[in-house]
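If I may wish for something, please walk me through the protein I am sending here so I can picture the backbone:
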Amino acid sequence: MPKIKEGLESEALRLAEEYCIEEFTDYTIYSYLASHEKSETLKKILEKLAGEEYNHYMFWRRILGRDCRVETGRTKLRLILLSRKIFGLTFTLKFLERHEEEVIESYKEYLKYLDDESLRKELESIIRDEEEHESSLIGSIEETVVRYLSFIVLGLADAIVEITGVHAGFLGVTNRTIMAGIAGLIVGLSAAISMASAAYIQAKSDPTREPLKSALMTGLGYIGAVVMLAAPYFIAAHMLTAFVASVLLGILLIGVFTFYSAIVFDRPFLREFIESSTLMLGTALASYVFGDIIGTHFGVRT
């Protein structure tokens, strides 16, 4: 058995088994993703990551003195593959690696258990892999969805705030949900064209992005959010019910794209989610007050 400091054997072996299982699980996941990857470039990155995880697994297996393999469930693997197909490889890998900092700190702590200098150096090399090489490999992945994510988010965020404001304004003017829904769609379509045009012009000055693709991403993101937020007004019979449902859908959309961005760009999720939600609700409140004043002043309530 590799040399472990006297008196620490029990805890050291317990941790080694835990790390060994985790590394083998990561190896299994990366190998599974690589076997289903069509892009040769991405396939090589996944195979390289799998190879590193396998080497790490073998290190902990030597420390443990026996095998530790635990089969990863097929359902889990299929869900991860589904995530790769829907959200992209960058998001999926970064989501899987989201606790990497904790792992690195745990490995650094484990150095105190080792009484063998060669093992300490090997573990330090593994730590460097975790700190540098794997993150640089994941960072080297180029995907359209990530490259144009800022345009997609721009369309979604603007649509959520603007269309929620339109619906809130109509809450103070009319009780007819169809009217509010149609107004949201009309304003949304016009705004989507405007936003797409702005994105096109902006992308023309950025050599890393295609103007047409940038415009499409922004416009489609905007239209998608508009349709989703307007849907309750064509289903519910009461304005307040439709408005609450639309606001909840808006918060859900904010949560989804904020979480996605937080994972891909390593940003704090909670702060950005609260800021975006507050902006949407503040706009809705201001629009409702304005709509109520206009409706009362001009006597156009229906």
In short: The chain has two domains: 9-139, 144-298. The chain is about 80% helix and 0% strand.
